[in-house]
Amino acid sequence: MHQELESAGAIPVFDSHFHIIDRRFPLVPNNGYLPEDFTCDDYLQRTRDIPLAGGAIVSGSFQAMDQAYLVDALSTLGPRFVGVTQLPAQVSDDEVLRLNALGVRAVRFNIQRGGSEHVDRLDEMARRVYELARWHVELYVDSGELPALKAVLAGLPAVSIDHLGLSKAGFGTLLALVERGVRVKATGFGRVDFDVRTALKEICKANPDALMFGTDLPSTRAPRPYADEDLLLVLDSLGEDLARKVLYQNALELYRPRATSS
After folding, report:
1. What are phi and psi for residue 22, nearest 5 degrees?
2. Environment class of residue 259 by beta-carbon count within 10 Å: exposed (0-12), middle (13-18) or buried (19+)?
3. What is the model's pTM?
4. Higher pLDDT, 6 or 150
5. In what order do the strands lie in the sheet containing 211-213?
């Protein structure tokens, strides 16, 4: 596997979705679940064979509204990495701008697991953080719920949906949103109930700028955790030109890290 990843190394990888879990900072049980630690060192060791050019640290349900862990992880991993946080609707403008300066680039609505602001505040918050700092919103949501959200999501300035939308139910709505500019993360292949290869191709056909690869490490609660074969599947399914967009360019454009690999 190491040699196969090396052969793919001409394409850098911006990991658009992973978690850092560090018990030095507050953790909140989610439905009784608390994950094991997965520190910055653990992440760098696990991805040592990937031509890593940066990535997005995503706040999980078990981190709720804590910012301390994220600020620490961004400082540790450096300016090629950005953050996706969870914030209450009443967050101050100053706090959004402070976090932006530290590398945060998005606010997450965890509809699937909770721990974030309620989806009723989605439209209001999405427009506000975009106007303040050009942040987008990220949704952890089952595609089966997208028809009820379609009108709101289609009108927002910048949106990303996690884990290929998780389910076949509502995948048509996901594709319709992709055609209107909504981004989708090619992450969590072990979480979905459909053929990943087909989904990757259909999303890229709908909008080649939409799809962004991520490892989903450490794959908390996933039926199957991330494997490096998932990255190779993207290359094999899409070919080099599209894979370069999915593995690197699309995410770089959306997340705007403070530094990039040349």
Report:
1. -145, 115
2. exposed
3. 0.94
4. 150
5. 13-18, 52-58, 81-85, 104-110, 136-140, 159-161, 183-186, 211-213
User: What phi and psi, each to the nearest 5 degrees, are found at residue 190?
Assistant: -80, 5
Please name the helix (run of DSSP H) or strand (run of DSSP E) that holds residue 147, with its range, or none.
Answer: helix 146-154
In whole angstroms, what is the distance from residue 7 CA to residue 43 CA? 22
Is pLDDT of 114 > 60?
no
53-58 average pLDDT score: 97
- pLDDT tens per residue, range 162-195: 999 999 999 999 999 999 999 999 999 999 999 9
Instruction: Go through the domains of the chain in sequence order and give each one's CATH number.
Output: 2-8+15-255 (3.20.20.140)
Question: What pLDDT is attached to residue 260?
Answer: 83
Q: Which tokens sit at 134?
A: 């050009």
Residue type, 213: F
Bridge partner list, 82: 56
Q: What is the DSSP string of 156-205?
A: SS-EEESGGGSSSTTHHHHHHHHHTT-EEEE--GGG-SS-HHHHHHHHHH
